[in-house]
Amino acid sequence: MIGANTERVHGLADRVRSRLHHGLFSSVGRGTFIAGRPTVINDGVIRIGEGCLISSRPIQSHFVTMPGAEITIGGGVLISYGAALSAARAISIGDETRIGPLCVILDIDYHEIGDRHSHGGVEPVQIGRNVTIGARVTVLRGTRIGDGAQVISGSTVSGIVASGAVVAGVPARVVGKGSAYKSIDLVATTVMRIFGLTKLPGDQDGPAQIAAWTAIGCVRLLFALEESLGLTLHEEEIRRARTIAEVASIVTRAREQSRVALA
Questions:
Q1: Are residues 148 and 198 in the same domain?
Q2: 106 phi, psi to nearest 5 deg
Q3: Cis, bond preceding 38 (omega within 30 deg of 0)
Q4: 162 and 187: one domain?
Q5: Is the model's pLDDT at 9 over the cut of 50?
Q6: Greater model confidence, 23 or 30
Q7: pTM
Q8: Is the model's pLDDT at 191 over the cut of 70?
Q9: Which of 157, 177, 197 is the last residue in one of the domains?
Q10: 206: which of 105, 109, 122, 174 is 20 to 30 A away, CA to CA?
Q11: How many domains does the chain have?
């Protein structure tokens, strides 16, 4: 009983703190939860839609608008911890988009290459609906990402990303296509990257076929998937999975549960 009461008190305190942090932004929609205390320098306008989750735990997220600039975040958006959004003109993020940990989104260069005292270029950034952006992605000025696109962790994005495209790398290049990036594609790409494989593994490949998929490798896979998705996965489920297809099923369930929780 004491433990249950403590949990309720902590939950209430989190909700109170979230409401207090709402005042840092120009407007915040109903049902949006702000976890932790973000750093907000709002000399323009920052609007957040309904049912969003904005995290600053365990690492603070930063939101900056310069005079006359605007950041617009649609409904049902998840922005994971350690994000940095800085607008000199405009950044817009569409409904139901997921942004992983430690992402940077800028609509300004701040200075020209080779001249720190110059004024860099400024171009609005547009991110569509149902976009998934993995961990440690950098989105540069003038970028337009279409609906349903997927940006793989660690990428740097500039220019136009077509709707439904899957991009990866520095600079990001198209590596796949689909109206929604399938969980099995995400898992296979992640397995190839973290285990250093020379080709994409098959759906039925797993620890028996991939030597680096050991107990420690399983933990690395878990962390890599969580960073890409901005979600929490169950370690024991990942450990029990024998194939990429089984891991993909776990990821699909986690994605669906996340959307329900934010609805």
A1: no
A2: -130, 140
A3: no
A4: no
A5: no
A6: 30
A7: 0.68
A8: yes
A9: 177
A10: 174
A11: 2
